[in-house]
Write a structure and sequence with these properties.
Rossmann fold, 16% strand, disordered N terminus, single chain, alpha/beta
Length: 227
């Protein structure tokens, strides 16, 4: 087995952290374009588990079909199983996990046991900017293409560039729903930052309200390389 000290030098686990609409998914995709490690999201793990058809996958499938939330213990197990795969040996990017304090504690224990250096990136974004970003999103009902009324508008207002179908606003992109999600974020997820601070974990705050995605990504890459 590879010594822990050696693995500690070779494996970095990046945790992208921030409120809904802070750009975690965009930054994860940009990061793995230059750092060839897997981008791991909770959605991907749940889909893979369901498709596997094993006992865990069947349990996840039953919960999702019933409209329930997959419990922390099961999500933690999926994360542990995913990080054990060979493509995570040099590092990985976690997007959307951990979401709760319990998940964060389990993650840090797992990192310690496996000699993984954590790099926590906090994308700090003004809530008014988030609301403007998300309420401006539009999607094609036919092909699923995404647009933004201000930042990436279609060539014809309200019409998809690819198939001419009408664009719509998703129910969860309304201001009322977004504000509810931000309240939930503050209640359940912000305590994770306090946990990182109090436990002496390394984390870097990157201002992401008005800066371009490429500028933000450069700051993230610098933090990862310095870890």
């Amino acid at each position: 087995m590879e010594p822990v000290a050696q693995r500690r030098e070779s494996c970095r686990g990046v945790i992208l952290f921030g409120p809904p609409g802070s750009g975690k998914g965009t930054q994860a995709k940009l990061l793995v374009e230059t750092w060839p490690v897997p981008h791991i999201s909770t959605g991907e793990m749940l889909r893979d588990a369901i498709e596997s058809g094993d006992s865990i996958g069947r349990e996840v499938s039953a919960i999702v079909r019933g409209g329930g939330l997959v419990p922390d213990a099961l999500v933690n197990l999926l994360v542990e199983r995913r990080l054990a795969q060979p493509d995570c040996a040099a590092g990985f990017v976690l997007d959307g996990y951990p979401r709760t304090l319990e998940q964060a504690k389990v993650t840090m224990d797992l990192f310690r046991q496996r000699g993984i250096r954590e790099v926590v990136i906090y994308l700090a974004v003004d809530y008014n900017v988030i609301i403007a970003r998300l309420t401006g999103r539009r999607q094609c009902a036919s092909c699923g293409a995404l647009y933004h009324v201000a930042f990436q508008p279609p060539r014809r207002d309200g019409v998809c560039d690819f198939d001419g179908e009408a664009l719509y606003q998703r129910d969860d992109d309304t201001e009322a729903v977004i504000r509810q999600r931000l309240v939930a974020y503050e209640e359940k997820t912000l305590p994770i930052l306090r946990y990182f601070q109090e436990s002496g974990r390394r984390w870097v705050e990157v201002a992401s309200s008005t800066e371009s995605p490429l500028w933000v990504n450069e700051r993230i890459r610098q933090a990862v390389e310095a870890a």
